[in-house]
Every structure is written in structure tokens, then in C-alpha cells.
Amino acid sequence: MVNNGEMIMLTLSGPETYYDYHGRGFGTQYLLCEKFAEKVGVSLRVEVCKDTAELISRLRNGDGDLVAFQLPQTRRDIIYCGVGVDSAKTQWAVREDSRELADTLNRWFKPELIAEVRREEDFALSTRSITRRVYSPMLNRSSGVISHYDVYFRRYAPLCRWDWRLLAAQCYQESTFDPQARSWAGACGLMQIMPGTANHLGLPQSQLFEPEANIAAACKYIAELRQHFRDVRNPMEQTLFVLAAYNGGSFHIRDAMALARKYGRNPYSWADVREFVLKLSTPAYYSDAVVKHGYMRGSETVGYVDRIRMRWAQYRGVAGGDVSMGGMSVGATPKKAKRRNRFQI
């Protein structure tokens, strides 16, 4: 482990073990392992297994350094370590030839570490950990101006063939129109672009907080997600899937679609799939054989889509309509809106 500078953690997916959330690892066991790896000066890599049999097999084969999951204490060929007392205990396992690692873990582990990492996780997942200023959801109702960035929404909406007001609604949900917003996970700017995503899209790190560049990159990413979900033929349905993937990750949404298909629901209907997005926080579902990426905080993703839909509907009362294409805008604006609806946000 120490020789190659990496520690490999084997575990199962779950809220207490490990899950990916906006590109950041979470779960009590993962966060403890992360602290331990930092203490001994190595990087941490996670390998998620399907069941305990795979955990034990891969540990024996040398595919990992430790198992971060409570295994039955019936094996004689592995060493159980990292054990606290009573309800405060956690249990890891290493190979019997890794006695030095086990001893190091036992010396390092303290029961109070569990409460510490849970507090850190709770804070990271709360809105308090998002550094941003909150602006009004609409700049000027009477003139139909949503934000200071409407010109960019209008300019780049055609890249992803979306209504510019949908982009505005999504932007408000992401950053409340704060170009300097930064999340605990490192997402930056108006559309909360992750640094890794920025690299993929060709957006220099120096431009992450520039409004026009950030919005342009987000539209490029949305276009990629639309291509990924091109099998969802209905334009409005596809929009909802893309919004969900922008927030929760396309791989989790594909898992929910697979569950919908398995249970006889329509995998191309968001109304059906959203039910299984929510169920991906339940062991019986995130451990299902058709699920490839495990646990998901589905309630946040469903709420994200719902709130953007509502705000988009409200923004469509703004002066300046759109050219509809199967229910979706392509970003154009007619010369004159026939009427303006009154609404509250």
C-alpha cells in the first residue's frame, strides 16, 4: 500500500459506506478511510462490489487493501480491525498477511471519529456549505428581464436547442444568479460547472467564474446530455431527463431507467422514472442486479427537476416568447409577445 502510494478500499454502495455525489465521495466508511489515507500519506481509491462474497474474494486476491464494511466475524483468513465499542464501532478487514496495516488502523481509530465525519458530511450536504450571494429570481417583471445574464442565455440556448428561459430557471436553481458561487464539491460559477467537466469541455479554469464562458460551457454540456438521452424521443421528456442527469449524474438516471423497465414501467417517461430515482436511496433498489452505480440521493434530484420546471413555467410569463419545436424552444424570440401573465416567484 505505502510503496505504491495508494490504498484501495473495497466496499458496497450505500449511505453509510460509499456513494458519489456531484463528483465527491461520501459515506461514513469512505470518509473515515479518506482520513486514514491522509494520515498515512497515501491516496485513496474506492472499488465498489456487488455483495460481501465479492468483497472477500477481491480482498483475498489482492485487488484491495481493506474492506470497509461490517463482515461476519467467521473468517480465519482475514484480520478484523478498526473496532471501537458498542454502537460506536466500525469494522474493517484486511488480509492476514497485512498485520502491520491492521495494527496501524487500530492505533489510529477512535470511536469519536465516526461522529466527526458525520458532522462534516452533514455540513457538506447542507446549503450552508455553498458560498454564494442570493439574488432576486427576477430582475424586472414589468419589462420581462429575468437577470443580468439574459443576453447570454439567449445567445447560447441554440447550442443545446433549449428555451433561454429554461436556462435561466436552471441557473437560478444552481447559483441564484451569483457568478461567484462555489459549492463544497468545487462546482463554480453561474451554472456550477465542476473543474473536471470544465476540462472536458475545454473551458480554462481561469474562466470558470466568467458569466459568458460558464453559460456557454453549460450549454455545451447540456447538448452532450441531450445526445446521451437521444433514445428519449419526446422533447419535453428528454428535457426532464437531462435536467436530472445534470444534477444527479447520467449513470444514476440510467440505473433508474433500468429499474423502471424491470418493474414494467415506461423507462422513457420521467413520471415513471422519477419514482425509481427516489427508490435508489433504498437498499432493496440500489442493490438490485440491474443497478450498476449504487446508492443515490434521489430526493434532491427529483426536487431539483421539480423546482426548475415550476420556475420555468413562471418565467414563460416573461415578455418575449419562443419558437416551439415539439414543445421545446430553439432559443428564438418573436417580435412581440401576445400577452404577459402575472405571476409570483
Structure description:
The protein is α/β, with parallel strands linked by helices. It folds into two domains: 6-124, D-Maltodextrin-Binding Protein, domain 2; 132-329, Lysozyme. The chain has 13 helices and nine strands. The chain has a five-stranded mixed beta sheet with strand order 4-1-5-7-6, sandwiched between helices. Strands 2-3 form a two-stranded antiparallel sheet. It has a two-stranded antiparallel sheet with strand order 8-9. Helix 5 packs across helix 6 (164-175) and helix 10 packs across helix 11 (270-279). The radius of gyration is 23 Å and the shape is elongated. The termini are far apart. The model is unreliable at 319-345 (pLDDT under 50). This is Transglycosylase SLT domain-containing protein. Residues 162-265 form the Transglycosylase SLT domain. InterPro entries: Lysozyme-like_dom_sf, Transglycosylase_SLT_dom_1. Belongs to the transglycosylase Slt family.
Summarize the structure.
The chain is 44% helix and 10% strand. It is of the alpha/beta class and 345 residues long.
Index terms:
D-Maltodextrin-Binding Protein, domain 2; two-stranded antiparallel sheet; alpha/beta; 13 helices; 2 domains; 345 residues; 9 strands; Lysozyme; 5-stranded mixed beta sheet; 10% strand; disordered C terminus; single chain
